[in-house]
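User: quick one - fold this with D-glutamic acid bound?
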Amino acid sequence: MTKTATDYNNELPIGVFDSGVGGLTVLKALMRRLPGERFLYLGDCARLPYGTKSPQTVTRYALQAASVLASRGVKLMVIACNTASAIGLDAVRAAHPGIPVVGVVEPGAQAACKASRSGRIAVIATESTIRGRAYHRAITAIRPDAQVDGHACSLFVSLAEEGWHTGEIAEAVAMRYLDPIFNDAHAPDTLVLGCTHFPLLKQAIGNVINPEAAIVDSAGTTAQAVHGLVHDLGMGATEGHGGIRFLTTDDAARFARTGQGFLGRSIPEDDVRLVDL
Ligand code: DGL
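Assistant: Sure. Structure tokens for the protein plus D-glutamic acid:
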């Protein structure tokens, strides 16, 4: 049965999960858009990367992460991982019918369709996201004439984790992946960063592709979608304290250290709890 506004506990946090710290780029956009909300973020760092795993494994991991958030009490869930959204969104929704669940693929597809004039859109993401063609389906559902090309760029994940966001090495890798896509008479006019880690490499990516091309990611449009849903369902926090708690499946100190670059602010180690899925 569909819930009504009064069925939700507005003071519960919004749950956000990702395979690691990458989803903090989405959390950053959510916090900016919904400053009065509390957030509970789970990074499944022990099992990262999801992007090279089979659909069965990614779905199982996504269901386990969602269960941990649901058991702690969240009013809405955001799957801030492109791979888990691309593969596990329907399963998570089916497992938690009482909690609205938002993925990042559809908002990313909306941003791409809005930005593209020619309809030629390139999507870069992890191997599993590209294999599952979720962006292809989401973009052509909005714009049936779009020509969508997907490319796995797995090394970008390691570069972002390592903190090598700009400079010679980041640009050499970007060149290797992206030059064949953009050095073409029918080059796309829009590039979708279909992975939580890729926004950190935006500058290096921008330096090697056609400067006219639009680079979009799903963080901003996901935050917009969540904001709209919170409003439509009447579930906005009334106490307006904000605040975030973090859960990780691996070393809390490492989560705090690597996460701050993605969140754009420091993460006190004491705010991070270790959990087992
Ligand atoms: N969070 C993943 C994504 O957005 C990238 C890292 C991983 O492979 O787990 O697809």
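One thing worth noting: The chain is about 45% helix and 15% strand.
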